[in-house]
Amino acid sequence: MCEADLFQSREELLTEVPASSDGEACNVPSGRTDVAAAVSGTLTPAEVWDAACRILRAGKNLSGETFKQWFINTVAVGFDEHGDLIVGVPDEFFGNWFTSSYGDRVAAALKAVGDGYGFVMRTGVTPPPRPEPVEPAAVPAVSAASAVPAAQRQFQSVVASGVASSSGHSPVHPQFARRHTFENFVVGEENRYAFTSARAVATTPGIYNPLYIYGDTGTGKTHLMQAVRCQLMENNPNIKVRYASCEEVLNDFVNSLAPRSSSQNSFADFRSSLREVDVLLIDDIHTMAHKKALQEQFFNAFNELYRANKQIVLTCDKQPCDIDGLEKRLVSRFEAGVITELLPPGYEIRLAILRQTAAECGSPVQDDVLDFLAANISSNVRRLKGAMLRVVGAASASGVPVTVNFAGELLHAMLEDECSAKSVSMETIISKVAEHFDLRINDILSNRRPRNIAEPRMMAMYLCRKLTNCSYPEIGSAFGKNHATVLNAMERVPRLCGESEKLRRSLAQLERQLKHN
What we know:
By secondary structure, the protein is of the alpha/beta class. Helices cover 54% and strands 8% of the residues. It has 22 helices and eight strands. It has a five-stranded parallel β-sheet, sandwiched between helices. The chain has a three-stranded mixed β-sheet with strand order 1-2-3. A hairpin with a 5-residue loop joins strand 1 and strand 2. Helix 8 packs antiparallel against helix 9 (266-275) and helix 12 (347-360) packs across helix 13 (367-376).
């Protein structure tokens, strides 16, 4: 089996993998790679990887979308001197992410193929081109939509699904929710705790009650909420889950009070919609602020669900104590569970999200373009993905390749806005650093040199130089020092961060917060 044939067979896996009625993987169909043959050592590397992919795709824990995004971009290269399968991937970042996310499952699948198989990654390997799909012999009359090139139709479907996802929430499992699962949520240091907490709730409802997720716009709150719902309904199709935005709950409450003869039971229906559920998921809970009547109803519903150990998950753009106009009794109940923050994504997560978006719209995008977008658009994930879709769509419509210059020209206004958003004053930096390290601003600006003050002071100088256009003398003057002290800070901070993981994380967190405040 040649590499092109292997690639085609893995494309077929997206729709042709059989499964038994109880969800267990079935045997490979006749005419396909015989998994049992691997034990006798008669399979080629490509056939071993093909067999492993079939086992993975036939299982429960790997969606077709995930397979298309990640596994299609791999290829069997050969065996190493230890007999392990060499799996080729495009680059180091892809390989690291693939191994950390799916390594255990790949190892288990290879073990099922043959006990002697392990695997290693090799970077810089590009899969062969995808074969052209074979059209069926009989096709209906050509419509205007079918005249659009396949890649452009696929791009348009991605855009359409994105629009649908923002149109509102449905009481039933919506089509767009299938794209918002735990498997396609890109995990990094900025969101790992929130991701882990949400997944625990989806696996064992009631374990963290309530779960309160907060963060800026576009950090993934709604994605995690949808992922919780998808997982719950997949685990138990009979579970009663209510997912709604707080605005939708508000509208239901107002409508329930309307004096209509046909709505005599509408208020009772409203109460039931919040109480007679196993899991209640409410997005943007801050919308409830200053609405006392709604807060009263939600307080009573919350207490009833909590006493019955029914899972409650809430999202917001700030902590409970920071919501102006929210009653203290609700604040205390929200704070009684697990509160977790979603920080703005770092460069690595943004790059992974762009890879995912590019895979969804079915258009190859060069790494330098992805790097350019990830480096220059950091305000939120929605804007980042929107920029990706806009660039791919404009290039497809114009019939030109996607390049850095093309993306820069098309997104000029957006990039200018991003640069403006990143501007920050030295006063803000000093204040934020002092707050982070639990110091007074006067400590940062003093001549005191204990380590717990000297290191934050150098970090503040480093951030002032990196995030502002101020010169070394200007920064030195703001701290009551000379420019040589600032130069020393610029040299020492990277070295200190290399020696201390705690300092490195503090610096990264401060930089992200300052860029997005």
